[in-house]
Design goal:
The complex is a heterodimer of chains A (277) and B (271). Chain A is an all-alpha fold and 277 residues long. Chain A is built from twelve helices and no strands. In chain A, α4 packs parallel to α7 and α9 packs antiparallel against α12. The longest helix of chain A is centred in the middle third of the chain and has 33 residues. Chain B has eight helices and ten strands. In chain B, a hairpin with a 2-residue loop joins β1 and β2. In chain B, α3 packs across α4. The interface between A and B is medium-sized, with 19 and 26 residues.
Chain lengths: 277, 271
Protein backbone atom coordinates (compact mmCIF):
# COMPACT_ATOMS: atom_id res chain seq x y z
CA UNK A 1 0.00 0.00 0.00
CA UNK A 2 1.41 3.39 -0.92
CA UNK A 3 1.74 6.21 1.56
CA UNK A 4 -0.79 8.14 -0.45
CA UNK A 5 -3.37 5.41 -0.14
CA UNK A 6 -2.72 5.12 3.56
CA UNK A 7 -3.16 8.86 3.97
CA UNK A 8 -6.40 8.72 2.09
CA UNK A 9 -7.60 5.90 4.30
CA UNK A 10 -6.70 7.83 7.42
CA UNK A 11 -8.45 10.92 6.21
CA UNK A 12 -11.55 8.97 5.34
CA UNK A 13 -11.58 7.43 8.80
CA UNK A 14 -11.14 10.79 10.40
CA UNK A 15 -13.99 12.33 8.47
CA UNK A 16 -16.26 9.47 9.35
CA UNK A 17 -15.05 9.75 12.96
CA UNK A 18 -16.54 13.21 13.37
CA UNK A 19 -20.04 12.15 12.37
CA UNK A 20 -20.79 9.02 14.36
CA UNK A 21 -23.99 8.80 16.38
CA UNK A 22 -23.55 10.10 19.92
CA UNK A 23 -19.75 9.69 19.77
CA UNK A 24 -17.37 12.10 21.45
CA UNK A 25 -15.13 14.18 19.23
CA UNK A 26 -11.88 15.96 20.24
CA UNK A 27 -12.52 19.04 22.44
CA UNK A 28 -10.61 21.28 20.06
CA UNK A 29 -12.79 20.28 17.13
CA UNK A 30 -15.93 20.78 19.22
CA UNK A 31 -14.95 24.32 20.26
CA UNK A 32 -13.77 25.21 16.76
CA UNK A 33 -17.12 24.04 15.38
CA UNK A 34 -18.91 26.46 17.69
CA UNK A 35 -16.84 29.35 16.38
CA UNK A 36 -17.00 28.29 12.74
CA UNK A 37 -20.63 29.26 12.11
CA UNK A 38 -20.37 32.77 13.63
CA UNK A 39 -17.15 33.33 11.66
CA UNK A 40 -18.79 32.23 8.42
CA UNK A 41 -21.82 34.42 9.11
CA UNK A 42 -19.55 37.35 9.94
CA UNK A 43 -17.58 36.91 6.69
CA UNK A 44 -20.81 36.65 4.75
CA UNK A 45 -22.10 39.79 6.43
CA UNK A 46 -18.86 41.60 5.69
CA UNK A 47 -18.81 40.44 2.05
CA UNK A 48 -22.42 41.44 1.42
CA UNK A 49 -21.87 44.94 2.82
CA UNK A 50 -18.40 45.43 1.28
CA UNK A 51 -19.75 44.53 -2.15
CA UNK A 52 -22.64 46.93 -1.49
CA UNK A 53 -25.21 44.27 -2.34
CA UNK A 54 -27.67 45.80 0.14
CA UNK A 55 -28.20 49.37 1.30
CA UNK A 56 -26.54 50.19 4.65
CA UNK A 57 -29.97 51.09 6.02
CA UNK A 58 -31.07 47.46 5.73
CA UNK A 59 -27.79 45.95 6.76
CA UNK A 60 -25.01 48.16 8.11
CA UNK A 61 -21.45 46.90 7.70
CA UNK A 62 -19.72 45.12 10.58
CA UNK A 63 -17.38 48.09 10.90
CA UNK A 64 -20.13 50.62 11.36
CA UNK A 65 -21.68 48.38 14.02
CA UNK A 66 -18.33 48.11 15.79
CA UNK A 67 -17.89 51.86 15.43
CA UNK A 68 -21.27 52.40 17.02
CA UNK A 69 -20.22 50.11 19.86
CA UNK A 70 -17.00 52.05 20.32
CA UNK A 71 -18.92 55.33 20.36
CA UNK A 72 -21.29 54.06 23.04
CA UNK A 73 -18.38 52.74 25.05
CA UNK A 74 -16.30 55.92 24.94
CA UNK A 75 -19.25 58.19 25.58
CA UNK A 76 -20.15 56.12 28.63
CA UNK A 77 -23.62 55.32 27.27
CA UNK A 78 -22.94 51.62 27.06
CA UNK A 79 -21.90 51.30 30.66
CA UNK A 80 -24.86 53.35 31.87
CA UNK A 81 -27.32 51.35 29.76
CA UNK A 82 -25.83 48.02 30.73
CA UNK A 83 -25.79 48.72 34.46
CA UNK A 84 -29.43 49.84 34.45
CA UNK A 85 -30.48 46.78 32.46
CA UNK A 86 -28.42 44.31 34.46
CA UNK A 87 -29.90 45.75 37.64
CA UNK A 88 -33.42 45.23 36.28
CA UNK A 89 -32.62 41.72 35.10
CA UNK A 90 -31.14 40.75 38.43
CA UNK A 91 -33.97 42.15 40.53
CA UNK A 92 -36.67 40.84 38.19
CA UNK A 93 -35.16 37.38 38.05
CA UNK A 94 -34.40 37.27 41.78
CA UNK A 95 -37.95 38.36 42.62
CA UNK A 96 -39.32 35.59 40.40
CA UNK A 97 -36.88 33.07 41.86
CA UNK A 98 -37.58 33.95 45.49
CA UNK A 99 -41.27 33.19 44.91
CA UNK A 100 -40.87 30.34 42.42
CA UNK A 101 -38.48 28.23 44.51
CA UNK A 102 -40.75 27.70 47.52
CA UNK A 103 -43.87 27.42 45.37
CA UNK A 104 -42.20 24.97 42.99
CA UNK A 105 -40.89 22.89 45.87
CA UNK A 106 -44.30 22.79 47.55
CA UNK A 107 -46.00 21.88 44.25
CA UNK A 108 -43.48 19.11 43.66
CA UNK A 109 -44.01 17.60 47.09
CA UNK A 110 -47.66 18.11 47.91
CA UNK A 111 -50.25 16.93 45.41
CA UNK A 112 -52.84 19.27 46.93
CA UNK A 113 -50.74 22.35 46.27
CA UNK A 114 -49.96 21.13 42.77
CA UNK A 115 -53.69 20.65 42.21
CA UNK A 116 -54.41 24.15 43.51
CA UNK A 117 -51.80 26.02 41.50
CA UNK A 118 -50.85 24.01 38.43
CA UNK A 119 -53.91 24.80 36.27
CA UNK A 120 -53.59 28.52 37.01
CA UNK A 121 -49.86 28.72 36.38
CA UNK A 122 -50.07 26.60 33.25
CA UNK A 123 -52.68 28.96 31.84
CA UNK A 124 -50.97 32.18 32.76
CA UNK A 125 -47.64 31.12 31.30
CA UNK A 126 -49.14 31.09 27.82
CA UNK A 127 -50.46 34.63 28.14
CA UNK A 128 -48.37 37.14 26.18
CA UNK A 129 -46.45 39.35 28.57
CA UNK A 130 -46.37 42.20 26.03
CA UNK A 131 -50.14 42.41 26.26
CA UNK A 132 -49.84 43.03 29.98
CA UNK A 133 -47.79 46.21 29.57
CA UNK A 134 -50.78 48.58 29.89
CA UNK A 135 -51.96 46.83 33.04
CA UNK A 136 -48.42 46.73 34.44
CA UNK A 137 -48.25 50.54 34.08
CA UNK A 138 -51.56 50.92 35.91
CA UNK A 139 -50.37 48.67 38.70
CA UNK A 140 -46.71 49.64 39.02
CA UNK A 141 -46.41 53.07 37.46
CA UNK A 142 -43.78 53.94 34.93
CA UNK A 143 -40.66 53.58 37.09
CA UNK A 144 -38.27 50.68 37.52
CA UNK A 145 -41.00 48.76 39.32
CA UNK A 146 -42.95 48.33 36.08
CA UNK A 147 -39.90 47.01 34.21
CA UNK A 148 -39.17 44.59 36.99
CA UNK A 149 -42.80 43.49 37.08
CA UNK A 150 -42.66 42.63 33.35
CA UNK A 151 -39.45 40.63 33.84
CA UNK A 152 -41.04 38.91 36.82
CA UNK A 153 -44.13 37.96 34.82
CA UNK A 154 -41.99 36.67 31.97
CA UNK A 155 -39.94 34.47 34.26
CA UNK A 156 -41.95 33.35 37.26
CA UNK A 157 -44.59 31.05 35.80
CA UNK A 158 -42.23 28.95 33.71
CA UNK A 159 -39.75 28.81 36.53
CA UNK A 160 -42.24 27.59 39.15
CA UNK A 161 -43.33 24.72 36.90
CA UNK A 162 -39.75 23.76 36.09
CA UNK A 163 -38.75 23.72 39.75
CA UNK A 164 -41.77 21.55 40.49
CA UNK A 165 -40.44 19.09 37.92
CA UNK A 166 -36.91 19.27 39.34
CA UNK A 167 -38.30 18.26 42.72
CA UNK A 168 -40.47 15.49 41.27
CA UNK A 169 -37.54 14.05 39.37
CA UNK A 170 -35.59 12.97 42.43
CA UNK A 171 -35.50 9.28 43.29
CA UNK A 172 -38.54 8.44 45.45
CA UNK A 173 -36.43 5.94 47.37
CA UNK A 174 -34.31 8.80 48.75
CA UNK A 175 -37.40 9.99 50.58
CA UNK A 176 -38.21 6.45 51.67
CA UNK A 177 -34.66 6.01 52.93
CA UNK A 178 -35.12 9.17 54.98
CA UNK A 179 -38.36 7.80 56.41
CA UNK A 180 -36.81 4.49 57.41
CA UNK A 181 -33.96 6.40 59.08
CA UNK A 182 -36.49 8.14 61.28
CA UNK A 183 -36.43 11.67 59.88
CA UNK A 184 -39.52 13.88 60.05
CA UNK A 185 -41.21 15.18 56.90
CA UNK A 186 -39.75 18.61 57.52
CA UNK A 187 -36.23 17.20 57.90
CA UNK A 188 -36.64 15.08 54.78
CA UNK A 189 -37.74 18.15 52.86
CA UNK A 190 -34.82 20.29 53.99
CA UNK A 191 -32.03 17.74 54.21
CA UNK A 192 -32.84 15.22 51.49
CA UNK A 193 -35.28 16.55 48.90
CA UNK A 194 -33.77 20.02 48.67
CA UNK A 195 -30.11 19.02 48.22
CA UNK A 196 -31.10 16.19 45.86
CA UNK A 197 -33.09 18.58 43.67
CA UNK A 198 -30.60 21.44 43.84
CA UNK A 199 -28.46 20.59 40.78
CA UNK A 200 -31.64 20.43 38.69
CA UNK A 201 -32.94 23.66 40.21
CA UNK A 202 -29.63 25.35 39.41
CA UNK A 203 -30.04 24.29 35.79
CA UNK A 204 -33.50 25.84 35.86
CA UNK A 205 -31.91 29.05 37.16
CA UNK A 206 -29.53 29.07 34.23
CA UNK A 207 -32.28 28.53 31.68
CA UNK A 208 -34.76 30.97 33.20
CA UNK A 209 -32.32 33.85 33.55
CA UNK A 210 -31.79 33.44 29.81
CA UNK A 211 -35.52 33.96 29.35
CA UNK A 212 -35.40 37.02 31.61
CA UNK A 213 -32.81 38.48 29.21
CA UNK A 214 -35.11 37.91 26.26
CA UNK A 215 -37.83 39.96 28.01
CA UNK A 216 -35.53 42.95 28.49
CA UNK A 217 -36.64 44.84 25.38
CA UNK A 218 -40.29 44.23 26.26
CA UNK A 219 -39.67 45.50 29.77
CA UNK A 220 -38.00 48.68 28.55
CA UNK A 221 -40.58 49.31 25.85
CA UNK A 222 -42.44 51.99 27.78
CA UNK A 223 -41.25 55.03 29.70
CA UNK A 224 -37.64 54.09 30.09
CA UNK A 225 -34.93 56.65 29.62
CA UNK A 226 -31.98 54.27 29.84
CA UNK A 227 -31.26 50.61 29.29
CA UNK A 228 -30.00 48.36 26.53
CA UNK A 229 -33.53 47.58 25.39
CA UNK A 230 -34.52 51.25 25.46
CA UNK A 231 -31.55 52.13 23.27
CA UNK A 232 -32.74 49.67 20.63
CA UNK A 233 -36.29 51.00 20.69
CA UNK A 234 -35.04 54.58 20.38
CA UNK A 235 -32.87 53.63 17.45
CA UNK A 236 -35.95 52.23 15.73
CA UNK A 237 -37.40 55.73 15.60
CA UNK A 238 -34.35 57.06 13.71
CA UNK A 239 -33.78 53.89 11.69
CA UNK A 240 -30.25 53.61 13.13
CA UNK A 241 -29.82 50.00 12.16
CA UNK A 242 -26.24 49.97 13.39
CA UNK A 243 -27.41 50.86 16.92
CA UNK A 244 -30.14 48.21 16.72
CA UNK A 245 -27.71 45.53 15.59
CA UNK A 246 -25.08 46.44 18.13
CA UNK A 247 -27.60 46.52 20.97
CA UNK A 248 -29.04 43.16 19.99
CA UNK A 249 -25.64 41.52 19.69
CA UNK A 250 -24.54 43.02 22.99
CA UNK A 251 -27.59 41.63 24.82
CA UNK A 252 -26.80 38.25 23.29
CA UNK A 253 -23.24 38.53 24.51
CA UNK A 254 -24.32 39.36 28.08
CA UNK A 255 -26.75 36.44 27.94
CA UNK A 256 -23.96 34.14 26.87
CA UNK A 257 -21.79 35.41 29.72
CA UNK A 258 -24.58 34.81 32.26
CA UNK A 259 -25.05 31.30 30.93
CA UNK A 260 -21.34 30.61 31.21
CA UNK A 261 -21.19 31.90 34.78
CA UNK A 262 -24.10 29.68 35.81
CA UNK A 263 -22.54 26.68 34.11
CA UNK A 264 -19.20 27.24 35.81
CA UNK A 265 -20.89 27.91 39.14
CA UNK A 266 -22.96 24.76 38.87
CA UNK A 267 -19.97 22.65 37.99
CA UNK A 268 -18.01 23.75 41.05
CA UNK A 269 -21.00 23.75 43.43
CA UNK A 270 -22.23 20.29 42.46
CA UNK A 271 -19.08 18.30 41.85
CA UNK A 272 -20.79 15.38 43.59
CA UNK A 273 -23.69 15.24 41.18
CA UNK A 274 -23.74 12.23 38.87
CA UNK A 275 -25.79 14.09 36.27
CA UNK A 276 -23.33 15.27 33.66
CA UNK A 277 -23.55 18.89 32.80
CA UNK B 1 -26.96 -28.41 62.90
CA UNK B 2 -29.20 -26.96 60.25
CA UNK B 3 -29.88 -23.32 60.96
CA UNK B 4 -33.53 -23.84 60.13
CA UNK B 5 -34.49 -25.71 63.28
CA UNK B 6 -32.82 -23.07 65.41
CA UNK B 7 -34.90 -20.34 63.80
CA UNK B 8 -38.28 -21.96 63.79
CA UNK B 9 -38.04 -22.93 67.45
CA UNK B 10 -38.12 -19.27 68.50
CA UNK B 11 -41.02 -16.83 68.43
CA UNK B 12 -41.82 -14.99 65.24
CA UNK B 13 -39.89 -11.77 64.70
CA UNK B 14 -42.22 -10.71 61.90
CA UNK B 15 -45.81 -11.92 61.68
CA UNK B 16 -47.75 -11.26 58.53
CA UNK B 17 -51.36 -12.04 59.41
CA UNK B 18 -54.03 -12.19 56.72
CA UNK B 19 -52.48 -9.29 54.85
CA UNK B 20 -54.09 -8.09 51.63
CA UNK B 21 -53.53 -5.06 49.48
CA UNK B 22 -55.80 -3.42 46.93
CA UNK B 23 -54.65 -0.70 44.60
CA UNK B 24 -57.03 1.77 43.14
CA UNK B 25 -56.22 1.98 39.45
CA UNK B 26 -58.31 4.58 37.61
CA UNK B 27 -61.30 4.08 39.84
CA UNK B 28 -61.14 0.28 39.79
CA UNK B 29 -59.98 -1.73 42.78
CA UNK B 30 -57.17 -4.05 41.76
CA UNK B 31 -56.24 -6.85 44.14
CA UNK B 32 -52.45 -6.83 44.35
CA UNK B 33 -52.20 -9.20 47.29
CA UNK B 34 -55.09 -11.46 48.22
CA UNK B 35 -54.21 -12.85 51.63
CA UNK B 36 -50.78 -13.65 52.95
CA UNK B 37 -49.94 -15.36 56.22
CA UNK B 38 -46.28 -15.75 57.07
CA UNK B 39 -44.18 -15.92 60.22
CA UNK B 40 -40.51 -15.08 60.07
CA UNK B 41 -38.25 -16.17 62.92
CA UNK B 42 -35.67 -14.10 64.72
CA UNK B 43 -32.45 -13.86 62.70
CA UNK B 44 -33.99 -15.88 59.93
CA UNK B 45 -33.11 -15.16 56.31
CA UNK B 46 -36.18 -15.36 54.08
CA UNK B 47 -36.15 -14.81 50.32
CA UNK B 48 -39.27 -13.92 48.40
CA UNK B 49 -39.46 -14.80 44.71
CA UNK B 50 -42.22 -14.63 42.15
CA UNK B 51 -43.17 -13.34 38.72
CA UNK B 52 -43.34 -9.62 38.19
CA UNK B 53 -46.51 -8.14 39.59
CA UNK B 54 -46.95 -10.78 42.28
CA UNK B 55 -46.73 -8.09 44.94
CA UNK B 56 -43.37 -9.05 46.42
CA UNK B 57 -42.12 -5.47 46.60
CA UNK B 58 -45.49 -4.31 47.93
CA UNK B 59 -45.26 -6.89 50.69
CA UNK B 60 -41.76 -5.70 51.58
CA UNK B 61 -42.86 -2.06 51.59
CA UNK B 62 -45.70 -2.93 53.96
CA UNK B 63 -43.32 -4.64 56.37
CA UNK B 64 -41.14 -1.55 56.08
CA UNK B 65 -44.10 0.68 56.90
CA UNK B 66 -43.77 2.52 53.58
CA UNK B 67 -47.12 1.17 52.47
CA UNK B 68 -50.24 0.19 54.41
CA UNK B 69 -52.10 -3.12 54.08
CA UNK B 70 -55.73 -2.81 52.98
CA UNK B 71 -56.58 -5.52 55.48
CA UNK B 72 -54.75 -7.80 57.88
CA UNK B 73 -51.89 -6.97 60.22
CA UNK B 74 -48.14 -6.96 60.22
CA UNK B 75 -46.58 -7.49 63.62
CA UNK B 76 -42.98 -6.98 64.62
CA UNK B 77 -42.10 -8.50 67.97
CA UNK B 78 -45.86 -8.82 68.46
CA UNK B 79 -46.54 -5.11 67.94
CA UNK B 80 -48.37 -3.85 64.84
CA UNK B 81 -46.33 -1.90 62.32
CA UNK B 82 -47.28 1.74 62.20
CA UNK B 83 -45.14 3.48 59.59
CA UNK B 84 -41.40 3.19 59.04
CA UNK B 85 -39.19 2.76 62.06
CA UNK B 86 -35.58 2.42 63.09
CA UNK B 87 -36.07 -1.22 64.03
CA UNK B 88 -35.93 -1.89 60.27
CA UNK B 89 -33.26 -1.05 57.70
CA UNK B 90 -34.14 -0.79 54.01
CA UNK B 91 -31.93 -1.41 50.97
CA UNK B 92 -33.31 -0.44 47.55
CA UNK B 93 -32.33 -1.66 44.11
CA UNK B 94 -31.59 1.92 43.07
CA UNK B 95 -28.91 2.32 45.82
CA UNK B 96 -30.56 5.64 46.70
CA UNK B 97 -27.50 7.14 48.33
CA UNK B 98 -27.28 10.80 49.28
CA UNK B 99 -25.02 11.92 46.45
CA UNK B 100 -23.93 15.11 48.17
CA UNK B 101 -22.49 13.19 51.11
CA UNK B 102 -19.34 11.09 51.22
CA UNK B 103 -19.40 7.37 51.96
CA UNK B 104 -18.79 8.19 55.60
CA UNK B 105 -21.35 11.00 55.54
CA UNK B 106 -24.04 8.69 54.16
CA UNK B 107 -23.49 6.13 56.89
CA UNK B 108 -23.21 8.74 59.63
CA UNK B 109 -26.43 10.41 58.49
CA UNK B 110 -28.26 7.19 59.36
CA UNK B 111 -27.01 7.49 62.93
CA UNK B 112 -28.32 10.98 63.50
CA UNK B 113 -31.47 9.82 65.24
CA UNK B 114 -29.62 7.29 67.39
CA UNK B 115 -28.85 7.76 71.05
CA UNK B 116 -25.20 6.70 70.67
CA UNK B 117 -22.48 9.08 71.85
CA UNK B 118 -20.36 10.88 69.30
CA UNK B 119 -17.43 8.55 69.90
CA UNK B 120 -19.65 5.49 69.56
CA UNK B 121 -21.05 6.81 66.30
CA UNK B 122 -17.57 7.37 64.89
CA UNK B 123 -16.65 3.84 65.89
CA UNK B 124 -19.83 2.38 64.36
CA UNK B 125 -19.25 4.19 61.08
CA UNK B 126 -15.66 2.94 60.94
CA UNK B 127 -16.78 -0.58 61.81
CA UNK B 128 -19.36 -0.71 59.03
CA UNK B 129 -17.11 0.91 56.45
CA UNK B 130 -14.72 -1.92 57.20
CA UNK B 131 -17.43 -4.60 57.34
CA UNK B 132 -18.60 -3.83 53.82
CA UNK B 133 -15.03 -3.63 52.55
CA UNK B 134 -14.86 0.07 51.81
CA UNK B 135 -11.85 1.03 53.94
CA UNK B 136 -9.95 3.74 52.10
CA UNK B 137 -13.08 5.06 50.39
CA UNK B 138 -14.47 6.94 53.40
CA UNK B 139 -14.12 10.33 51.73
CA UNK B 140 -15.28 9.25 48.27
CA UNK B 141 -18.57 10.51 46.86
CA UNK B 142 -21.11 7.94 45.55
CA UNK B 143 -20.55 9.20 42.00
CA UNK B 144 -16.96 7.95 42.20
CA UNK B 145 -17.97 4.40 43.17
CA UNK B 146 -19.00 1.37 41.13
CA UNK B 147 -22.51 -0.07 41.46
CA UNK B 148 -21.35 -2.82 43.80
CA UNK B 149 -19.55 -0.34 46.04
CA UNK B 150 -22.57 1.95 46.13
CA UNK B 151 -24.76 -0.92 47.24
CA UNK B 152 -22.25 -1.71 49.99
CA UNK B 153 -22.64 1.84 51.27
CA UNK B 154 -26.41 1.36 51.20
CA UNK B 155 -26.10 -1.86 53.20
CA UNK B 156 -23.84 -0.18 55.75
CA UNK B 157 -26.27 2.73 55.96
CA UNK B 158 -29.17 0.34 56.60
CA UNK B 159 -27.34 -1.59 59.33
CA UNK B 160 -25.27 1.01 61.16
CA UNK B 161 -28.05 2.08 63.52
CA UNK B 162 -28.51 -1.54 64.62
CA UNK B 163 -31.98 -2.38 63.33
CA UNK B 164 -33.08 -5.94 64.06
CA UNK B 165 -34.61 -6.37 60.60
CA UNK B 166 -33.07 -5.79 57.20
CA UNK B 167 -35.46 -5.40 54.26
CA UNK B 168 -33.90 -5.72 50.81
CA UNK B 169 -35.73 -5.03 47.56
CA UNK B 170 -33.81 -6.66 44.70
CA UNK B 171 -30.63 -5.06 46.03
CA UNK B 172 -28.29 -6.77 43.58
CA UNK B 173 -30.60 -6.65 40.57
CA UNK B 174 -28.62 -3.92 38.83
CA UNK B 175 -25.20 -5.51 39.32
CA UNK B 176 -23.27 -7.70 36.90
CA UNK B 177 -23.13 -11.43 37.63
CA UNK B 178 -19.62 -11.48 39.12
CA UNK B 179 -20.23 -8.53 41.43
CA UNK B 180 -23.57 -9.99 42.43
CA UNK B 181 -21.92 -13.24 43.51
CA UNK B 182 -19.40 -11.38 45.65
CA UNK B 183 -22.12 -9.22 47.20
CA UNK B 184 -24.17 -12.29 48.11
CA UNK B 185 -21.25 -13.80 49.98
CA UNK B 186 -20.55 -10.46 51.65
CA UNK B 187 -24.19 -10.21 52.71
CA UNK B 188 -24.14 -13.69 54.26
CA UNK B 189 -20.95 -12.76 56.10
CA UNK B 190 -22.52 -9.58 57.47
CA UNK B 191 -25.73 -11.39 58.36
CA UNK B 192 -23.69 -13.96 60.28
CA UNK B 193 -21.65 -11.31 62.11
CA UNK B 194 -24.47 -8.94 62.98
CA UNK B 195 -27.45 -11.20 63.59
CA UNK B 196 -30.40 -9.59 61.88
CA UNK B 197 -33.62 -10.91 60.41
CA UNK B 198 -33.53 -10.51 56.65
CA UNK B 199 -36.42 -10.30 54.22
CA UNK B 200 -34.96 -10.40 50.74
CA UNK B 201 -36.97 -9.83 47.56
CA UNK B 202 -35.45 -11.02 44.30
CA UNK B 203 -36.41 -12.55 40.99
CA UNK B 204 -33.15 -14.48 40.78
CA UNK B 205 -33.92 -18.03 41.95
CA UNK B 206 -30.22 -18.94 42.46
CA UNK B 207 -29.79 -15.92 44.64
CA UNK B 208 -32.91 -16.68 46.67
CA UNK B 209 -31.80 -20.26 47.42
CA UNK B 210 -28.15 -19.39 48.02
CA UNK B 211 -28.97 -16.83 50.69
CA UNK B 212 -32.06 -18.03 52.45
CA UNK B 213 -33.20 -20.33 55.22
CA UNK B 214 -36.57 -20.38 53.50
CA UNK B 215 -37.71 -19.34 50.05
CA UNK B 216 -41.24 -18.03 49.73
CA UNK B 217 -42.67 -18.41 46.23
CA UNK B 218 -45.50 -16.02 45.48
CA UNK B 219 -48.28 -16.63 42.97
CA UNK B 220 -49.55 -13.65 41.04
CA UNK B 221 -52.78 -11.88 40.20
CA UNK B 222 -53.65 -11.72 42.95
CA UNK B 223 -50.48 -12.17 44.95
CA UNK B 224 -50.57 -15.03 47.45
CA UNK B 225 -48.17 -17.62 48.80
CA UNK B 226 -47.71 -20.55 46.45
CA UNK B 227 -45.06 -22.38 48.38
CA UNK B 228 -42.70 -21.98 51.31
CA UNK B 229 -39.57 -24.02 50.81
CA UNK B 230 -37.06 -24.58 53.61
CA UNK B 231 -33.50 -24.60 52.26
CA UNK B 232 -31.44 -27.12 54.17
CA UNK B 233 -27.98 -26.36 52.91
CA UNK B 234 -25.03 -26.21 55.29
CA UNK B 235 -23.89 -22.82 56.52
CA UNK B 236 -21.60 -21.03 56.11
CA UNK B 237 -22.25 -21.18 52.38
CA UNK B 238 -19.94 -20.22 49.62
CA UNK B 239 -20.27 -20.32 45.85
CA UNK B 240 -19.61 -24.09 45.89
CA UNK B 241 -23.14 -24.59 47.18
CA UNK B 242 -24.39 -23.60 43.72
CA UNK B 243 -23.25 -26.97 42.34
CA UNK B 244 -24.58 -29.02 45.26
CA UNK B 245 -27.11 -31.65 44.02
CA UNK B 246 -29.55 -30.53 46.71
CA UNK B 247 -29.31 -26.99 45.36
CA UNK B 248 -30.33 -28.28 41.92
CA UNK B 249 -33.38 -30.03 43.38
CA UNK B 250 -34.55 -26.83 45.10
CA UNK B 251 -33.91 -24.83 42.00
CA UNK B 252 -35.82 -27.18 39.73
CA UNK B 253 -38.87 -27.14 41.98
CA UNK B 254 -38.94 -23.37 42.38
CA UNK B 255 -38.35 -22.78 38.68
CA UNK B 256 -41.22 -25.14 37.88
CA UNK B 257 -43.49 -23.18 40.23
CA UNK B 258 -42.53 -19.86 38.73
CA UNK B 259 -42.88 -21.20 35.21
CA UNK B 260 -46.37 -22.42 36.00
CA UNK B 261 -47.27 -18.95 37.29
CA UNK B 262 -45.76 -17.26 34.26
CA UNK B 263 -47.75 -19.48 31.90
CA UNK B 264 -50.95 -18.71 33.81
CA UNK B 265 -50.15 -15.03 33.57
CA UNK B 266 -49.55 -15.22 29.84
CA UNK B 267 -52.81 -17.11 29.34
CA UNK B 268 -54.60 -14.37 31.31
CA UNK B 269 -53.06 -11.67 29.17
CA UNK B 270 -54.07 -13.40 25.95
CA UNK B 271 -57.67 -14.00 26.93
Amino acid sequence: MTDQARDRGKRARKRKGLLRLRQDIPDGVFSAAGIAIPVVLFLLWWAVTALELVRPLFLPSPWSVLEEGWRQLTEGILFADASVSIYRILIGWLAATVVAVPIGILMGNYKLIEGLLEPLISTVRYMPVVALIPLSILWAGIGDGQKILILFLGTFFQQALMIMDNVKNIDLNLIRAGQTLGFTNNEILRRIILPAALPGIWDTFRITIGWTWTYLVVAELVAANAGLGRRIMDAQRYLSTDTILFGTLFIGLLGLLTDYLFKRGGRSLFKWSSQTR
Amino acid sequence: MSSLSAHVARDAKISIVGVGKNFNVSGRDLVAIEKIDLDIGKNEFVSIVGTSGCGKSTLLNMVGGLDEPTFGDILIDGRPVNGPGRDRGFVFQTYSLFEWMTVEGNIRFALEKSAFSKAEKTELVAHFVHAVGLSGFEKAFPKQLSGGMRQRVAIARALVYKPSILLMDEPFGALDAQTRGMMQELLLQIWDDHKVTVLFVTHDVDEAIFLADRVVVLASRPGRIKKVMPIELERPRSFEVLTDPKFAVYKREILADIREETLKLMAMEHS
